[in-house]
From TrEMBL:
GO molecular function, one term: oxidoreductase activity
Pfam family, one: adh_short
UniProt entry keywords in alphabetical sequence: Oxidoreductase
EC class: oxidoreductase
Family annotation (CDD domains): SDR_c
Protein name: SDR family NAD(P)-dependent oxidoreductase
Species annotation: Streptomyces heliomycini
The organism's taxonomic lineage, starting at the top: Bacteria, Bacillati, Actinomycetota, Actinomycetes, Kitasatosporales
Family membership noted in the UniProt record: Belongs to the short-chain dehydrogenases/reductases (SDR) family.
The enzyme's E.C. designation: 1.-.-.-
């Protein structure tokens, strides 16, 4: 069975992707900082009969990243690496003049540096996979200038560029940066607590990511809404 590592998998899009892959028979290594919701998510995912290893920890910790890859190796390797873990930099979001520099450093460490560290750790296994792929979760804030989204958007823009360069350096892999669009997640609620407008559930967005796995288009940046619309 193929094996995926998914960071930030205790809730939201990470959990939705874990459930969707488990339903397809994937074995999974799941990460999140809080062990309690991670264990609950892993229990729901494993109900599909797949093998699930849940490892609580912080993706900015090199030892934790090595543990994730080692767990995947024990399951058979790494066919897919999903970097979904994200940090906002401030909760709620604030204008750049108020953004704590330590918050910006945290966003860069989680959203960018940890992504590269995990890729570096997993590259030997990804290269040896029959169809190795890296999927990083981007944001429209990486491409558009929204007030208060500057620090988070900057970290995601850098992540997009990292993914683009990785795709050139590793032509044997598929490397996709995916903007999921607005979703009803705790992350968005923490970012903009006063915005309670209706948004898609992560489970409704997950099929866009599955389409990439099914069709394996060229490495690049994709938007989930467009992928969903084209499939209809």
């Amino acid at each position: 069975m193929p094996v995926a590592i998914i960071t930030g998998a205790s809730k939201g899009l990470g959990e939705a992707l874990a459930r969707a892959l488990a339903a397809r028979g994937w074995d999974l290594v799941l990460d999140a900082r809080d062990p309690v919701p991670l264990a609950e998510a892993a229990g729901l995912v494993s109900a599909h009969g797949t093998r699930v290893t849940a490892l609580p920890g912080d993706v900015t910790d090199a030892a934790h990243r090595a543990e994730l890859v080692a767990a995947a190796w024990r399951l058979g390797g790494v066919d897919l690496l999903v970097h979904n873990a994200s940090a906002l930099g401030a909760e709620p979001l604030v204008r750049l003049e108020e953004l704590p520099l330590q918050g910006l450093r945290r966003a860069l460490e989680v959203n960018l540096v940890a992504a590269l560290g995990l890729v570096q750790e997993a590259l030997p296994l990804l290269r040896s996979a029959a169809a190795g792929a890296v999927l990083v979760v981007s944001s429209d804030a990486a491409a558009e200038a929204y007030p208060t989204w500057g620090g988070y958007g900057a970290s995601k823009a850098a992540l997009d560029q990292l993914a683009a360069v990785l795709a050139v350096e590793e032509p044997g892999l598929r490397v996709w940066a995916v903007d999921p669009g607005d979703m009803a997640t705790d992350l968005y609620a923490a970012a903009v607590p006063d915005d309670d407008g209706p948004r898609p559930e992560p489970a409704d967005v997950a099929p866009a990511f599955l389409r990439l796995l099914d069709e394996r288009p060229a490495s690049g940046r994709y938007g989930a809404p467009a992928l969903l619309e084209e499939r209809r």
